[in-house]
Amino acid sequence: MSGGFSDAERERIRERLVAEGRELFSHYGLKKTTIADLTDPVGIATSTFYQFFDSKEALYVEILEREGEEMLPRIIAPFEEHDDPEAAIVGFLTELMDEIETNPLVRRLLVEPQELQMLRDYHTEEDLREDREESLAYFLPYVEAWYEAGEVEGPNPKVVANAIRSVSFLTLHQEDIGADLYPETRDLVIRAVARGLTE
Hints:
The chain has 199 residues and is mainly alpha-helical. The chain has helices spanning 7-32, 35-39, 56-81, 85-102, 104-111, 113-122, 125-137, 140-148, 157-166, 174-177, 182-198.
């Protein structure tokens, strides 16, 4: 046993911390959530938290990684479902932007600059570069295959993949566009990019 806990107890406490963290980070963010906020509902001392995670940031990263694993099959499903690149790109971007718009944890991370900065401060530049590469890696093979077949256009497959992914940043400007115009604007941009890359 480590720290007086059995393996089963450690697993239970770790999972409770993850569950509490997801709820608290979604509602209050990383900065406003304290270690005590995380440990009190779990029934452990604040000092005991560090037997499970090195920091709040480490817990946040684990939660985001789990969230990504859960989201990924839905987001990349259109690449498997559609032979037509245009339809696949539209499906992918629609799923991705729906997730950003409806998942409070992901949304907070993207719309709160201090949240993202805290996580960036926690990572090295190499970590951030690897994260960017990894986020492309899930759908880059499809883009490369389309590129080689002449079904998408651009300087190279990585630029095409980044162009596709960059459309999701439109979700950060919902207020600038206006709630009444945003849904149609979003759908029009998705279709325009998909068509422009595949014509």
